[in-house]
C-alpha cells in the first residue's frame, strides 16, 4: 500500500511540476522575447508619458499592443498583473519531488556507496546544504563588485558550476548529482524572483503610487537576474529529463558531460537572444531586403559541436569480454542461447526484484518504466537496455542494491555481444 501511495504522489507531483514549470518558463521566454523586440514608440505623446518601447502583435485572432515604460507610468493602473506564482509553485513542486524521490528514497536514488558511502541522514543534510549554499554563493557574487561586470561575473559563475558539477558527482549517485545540479540552478532562479525581482518591483510600484521618483536601480538589478534566469533555463530542463538517459549521468566522466550540456544550453539561449536583438534593430532602422542584421551563428555552432562531441564520447561500445570456462561454465564458443541460460539466473536474482510483474523490492509496486524481465523472451526484448544499464553505465541495479558483481556483468556482456556473432 505504501509503495502504491508513493507512486501516485510521484505521478501527481511530477504532473503538477510540469504544468507550473511550463507556465513559468513560457512567461519567462515570452517576456525576454518581448523586451528584445520592443521598438521606439511612434506617437510623440507616448514619449512624453515615459513609454520606452512598444510592440504590436497578433495571436489567436486578436491584435495586441504592448508598451513598456522607461521607469513607471505617472498614474498606476487599477489592475496590475504580477508574474510570480509560476516561479514559486515550480520550485515548491520541484522540492516536493526531490524530497519524495531523493530523500525518502535516498538509498535508491541519492546514495551510491561506490562513489561515497553516506548514511541516509547525512546524505539528506548534505543535499539541503549544497542547494542552500548554491544560492548564497551566487547571490553574494551578484551583489559584490564582480556583479558590476557581466563578463567577469559570467566567467566566475561558469567556473563555480564546473566545480559544483564535479563535487556533486563525487558525493552522490550520478542521477542524484544531476538532479541536485538542477535543483541548485532552479533555487537560484526562484531566489532571483523572490529576493530581487519581486522586492524591486514592489518598491517601484510603491514609489509610483505615491508619485515619488522611482529608483531605476531596481529595474537594472531585476533585468540582470532575469537574464541569468533565461540562460539557466535550458540546463535545468535537461536535468529534469536526464534520469531517462543513463548514458549521461552513468558515464565515468558524468560531471564533464553535465558541464558540456549546460554550456551548450547557455550558448543556444545566447543565440536566440541575439536573434531578438537583431530583429529589433532591423525594425528600428528599417533595413531594406538583403541588408538586415542577423545573429551570429557561432554560439549555435559551438553548442552543436559540443553536443556532437559528447554524443561520440559517451556512446563508445564496450570492449568485448573474453569468457572463459571458469566464468560461465562454458567457452567463448558458447551459443547465444547457452549464454542466455547463464545470464538468466543473474538477471532473476539481481534485476527482477524490481523489474517484475510482482516486484519484491520495498518501495516498488510496479516495474520501473514498465520493463519486465521475468522471462527469457522479455529479457531478449530488452537486451539493449539491459546491456546499456548494467554493463556500459553500470547504473543498474539501482544503487547496486542487489550487489551485482563485475563477473556477473561480464556474463551479461558476453551474452549481449554473442548476439552479433
Automatic annotation (TrEMBL):
Q: Which InterPro entries match?
A: Cyt_c-like_dom_sf, Urate_ox_N
Pfam families named in the record: Urate_ox_N
Q: Which residues cross the membrane?
A: 15-33, 85-105, 121-141, 153-173, 179-197, 230-247, 253-273, 294-314
Q: Give all residue intervals belonging to the Urate oxidase N-terminal domain.
A: 4-281
**Alphabetic keyword roster:** Membrane, Transmembrane, Transmembrane helix
Superkingdom in the source lineage: Bacteria
Keyword Transit peptide, does the record have it? no
One Gene Ontology term of the molecular function aspect: electron transfer activity
Q: What is this protein called?
A: Urate oxidase N-terminal domain-containing protein
**Species name:** Leucothrix arctica
Amino acid at each position: 500500500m505504501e509503495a502504491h501511495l508513493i507512486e501516485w504522489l510521484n505521478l501527481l507531483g511530477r504532473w503538477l511540476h510540469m504544468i507550473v514549470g511550463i507556465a513559468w518558463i513560457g512567461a519567462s521566454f515570452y517576456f525576454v522575447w518581448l523586451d528584445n523586440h520592443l521598438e521606439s514608440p511612434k506617437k510623440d505623446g507616448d514619449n512624453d508619458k515615459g513609454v520606452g518601447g512598444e510592440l504590436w502583435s497578433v495571436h489567436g485572432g486578436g491584435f495586441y499592443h504592448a508598451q513598456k515604460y522607461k521607469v513607471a507610468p505617472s498614474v498606476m493602473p487599477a489592475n496590475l498583473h504580477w508574474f510570480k506564482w509560476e516561479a514559486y509553485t515550480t520550485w515548491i513542486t520541484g522540492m516536493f519531488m526531490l524530497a519524495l524521490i531523493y530523500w525518502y528514497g535516498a538509498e535508491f536514488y541519492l546514495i551510491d556507496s561506490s562513489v561515497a558511502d553516506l548514511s541516509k541522514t547525512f546524505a539528506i543534510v548534505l543535499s539541503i546544504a549544497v542547494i542552500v549554499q548554491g544560492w548564497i554563493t551566487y547571490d553574494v557574487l551578484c551583489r559584490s563588485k564582480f556583479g558590476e561586470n557581466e563578463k567577469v561575473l559570467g566567467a566566475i559563475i561558469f567556473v563555480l558550476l564546473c566545480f559544483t558539477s564535479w563535487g556533486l558527482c563525487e558525493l552522490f549517485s550520478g542521477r542524484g548529482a544531476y538532479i541536485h545540479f538542477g535543483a541548485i540552478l532552479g533555487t537560484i532562479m526562484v531566489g532571483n524572483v523572490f529576493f530581487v525581482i519581486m522586492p524591486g518591483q514592489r518598491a517601484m510600484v510603491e514609489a509610483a503610487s505615491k508619485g515619488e521618483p522611482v529608483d531605476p536601480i531596481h529595474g537594472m538589478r531585476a533585468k540582470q537576474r532575469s537574464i541569468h534566469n533565461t540562460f539557466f533555463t535550458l540546463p535545468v530542463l535537461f536535468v529534469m529529463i536526464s534520469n531517462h538517459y543513463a548514458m549521461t549521468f552513468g558515464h565515468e566522466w558524468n560531471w564533464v558531460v553535465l558541464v558540456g550540456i549546460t554550456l551548450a544550453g547557455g550558448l543556444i539561449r545566447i543565440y536566440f537572444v541575439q536573434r531578438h536583438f537583431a530583429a529589433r534593430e532591423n525594425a528600428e532602422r528599417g533595413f531594406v531586403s538583403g541588408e538586415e542584421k542577423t545573429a551570429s551563428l557561432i554560439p549555435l555552432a559551438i553548442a552543436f559541436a559540443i553536443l556532437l562531441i559528447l554524443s561520440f564520447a559517451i556512446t563508445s561500445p564496450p570492449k568485448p569480454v573474453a569468457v572463459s570456462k571458469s566464468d560461465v561454465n562454458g567457452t567463448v564458443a558458447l551459443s547465444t542461447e547457452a549464454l542466455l541460460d547463464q545470464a538468466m539466473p543473474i538477471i532473476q536474482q539481481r534485476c527482477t526484484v524490481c523489474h517484475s510483474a510482482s516486484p519484491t523490492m520495498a518501495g516498488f509496486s510496479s516495474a520501473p518504466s514498465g520493463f519486465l524481465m521475468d522471462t527469457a523472451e522479455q529479457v531478449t526484448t530488452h537486451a539493449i537496455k539491459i546491456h546499456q544499464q548494467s554493463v556500459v553505465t553500470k547504473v543498474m541495479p539501482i544503487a547496486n542494491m542487489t550487489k551485482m558483481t563485475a563477473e556477473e556483468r561480464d556474463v551479461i556482456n558476453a551474452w549481449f555481444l554473442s548476439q552479433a556473432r
